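Much of what follows relies on a compact textual record of a protein's fold. The record below shows the convention in full:
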Amino acid sequence: MPATQVCEYVVLGVCEFSPTHSQTIDHVQMITRDGYPYAFDPTACRRCPGRCCNGESGVVRVTEEDAVAMAQVLAMPLEVFTARYLLVRGGELRVREIRDGHNYACALYDPARQGCSVYPARPRQCRTFPFWESARRNLAALIRECPGVVAGEGGSGRRSDGH
C-alpha cells in the first residue's frame, strides 16, 4: 500500500495495513498519512459518542457499490435501503440526515450503539476520516471534534482527549 493511503478498514480497533503507515504512541497503534500534521488513534472511536456522524449538517457521498454493500450489511433489499437512507442531490447519491433541533445525524448512525449501523461497508468518505483536506486546513476544529486525533507531525503532540 502506498504511504499516502490511509487505513480504510479498522476492525475492532486494529488497522489492517502495512506497519510502515503507522506508529506506536503510548502503546496505541496510530494511523498517519503523508502531508497531514496529525495522527489518528482508531481505538478512540470506542469512547466517542459519534461526533463525526453528528453535529453540523454535512454531505456523505456514496457510490452505487457503497449502497449495495451497505444494504447487504443491513440485510435489506437495495430498493428499500435506498428509499430509507439515501437521496439524490445534484446527480450524486448521498446519505440522508436526521435533524433533531440543532443536531444533524447521519441516517446510518445508531445512537444506541454510538456507531455506524453499516460500519463494515461504510462509504469511502467515512473510512478516510479524519484524513480529509478540510480537516487538515482546520486542525483546531478537528481536534475539538475527534478524540482520536493527535496533533503534531506524525502524531507527536497532544491528543485531543487530553492524554
